Amino acid sequence: MDPNNPLQQLLLRGLGTTSLVSERLRTVTQAWVRSGKLDPSQAPALVEDVLKALRGETPELEQQAERQLERNKDQLLQDLGLARQKELDELRGRIDRLERGQRQRSGAEGASDLDIPD
User: Fold this and answer.
1) Residue ranges covered by each domain of the chain
2) How far apart, in Å, are the Cα atoms of 87 and each of 60, 71, 77, 95, 101?
């Protein structure tokens, strides 16, 4: 290991921290089992779920976080009075339909003006 390589140092510290968290989590769950706060059959699943979350192996948790982030973003935009892209696209579509209708009406009026009565 090269002590001057910050990437290696960071990686090793990350691994060490994960190991410490893992060991501490197992100790805590064992204490909860002994005190009756946690069912012995649930302890391994709890440890595994937390470790999966630490390793980033929980897509459902990530999806839930993404949904919450999206809701927070939408709320912030609303609080600031800014429109979302979807709202802008809807408004553009409405404007296009109104302009098309106006052109059609203008074209029909112009054509009727050109008609010469018999």
Assistant:
1) 1-57
2) 28, 15, 12, 12, 21
